[in-house]
């Protein structure tokens, strides 16, 4: 008889994920793959910015704004799997998908993908009409946004391309917040945010992680991040997975 496939995560980790809403999985992605992702992330951002400057036209994939200093600040590029062969390889990786399947309790389908940059850029952008915002990502959840797109359950997977230290704006999470209903406050430019009373700063846990670490959290988990003051990049490849639906075909 063929032996059963070993689970990608332990029963204890699955229970912890159910109660806390997140996991930190170090050394899941090989250093060579991380380096390839870094190179492709830089090429994607450089190419998109150059094209925008040359055409003086906004790129719908690029989310960016101005800081109070006037410097352009790139938050993310989305989607990216069609631009980055290594991102596609990671998103389709059997071991990674096995982790997600164990936590979802179902075969996963890729439904979202992006590169998070959180960095200022030295380009001529006087032609662009951009909002003026800060670097901090305020407390929020992604579940309501995904639900409006027809995805009631989503797991977010973030691959750390660089060291995610507190100075670099490491992700902060509120353990167990995915298990309760939290009212949010609308904002003009940053979507609905979670009020401090519902997620006190004292209850936050910073997910400090080395490059190659994979962070996994329930999309309903309250999370946030501070500015990157490290002077070094803090890039993430972020992938969203939902349970595969037969009517949408086999998962990628």
Explain what this protein looks like in three dimensions.
The protein has helices at 11-20, 31-55, 85-91, 94-104, 143-148, and strands spanning 22-25, 62-66, 72-77, 108-120, 137-140, 155-160, 171-173, 205-206, 214-218, 223-225, 236-243. The chain has 252 residues and is of the alpha+beta class. The strands form two sheets. A seven-stranded antiparallel sheet has the order 1-9-6-11-4-3-2. A four-stranded antiparallel sheet has the order 5-10-7-8, with no helix packed on it. A hairpin with a 5-residue loop joins strand 2 and strand 3.
How is the largest sheet built, in terms of strand order?
A: 1-9-6-11-4-3-2
State the separation between the terminal residues, measured CA to CA. Answer: 29 Å
- Residue share in helix: 10-25%
* Protein structure class: alpha+beta
Report the total helices.
5
The whole-number mean of residue pLDDT values reads 93
Ranges where pLDDT stays below 50 over 5 or more residues in a row are: 1-5, 247-252
Order of helices and strands: HEHEEHHEEHEEEEEE
- From the alpha carbons, calculate the radius of gyration and give it in angstroms: 18 Å
- What's the shape? globular
Q: Tally the beta strands.
A: 11
Assembly category:
single chain
- Percent of residues in beta strands: 15-25%
Biggest sheet character: 7 strands, antiparallel
Structure summary:
The protein is α+β, with helices and mostly antiparallel strands and 252 residues long. It is 23% helix and 23% strand.
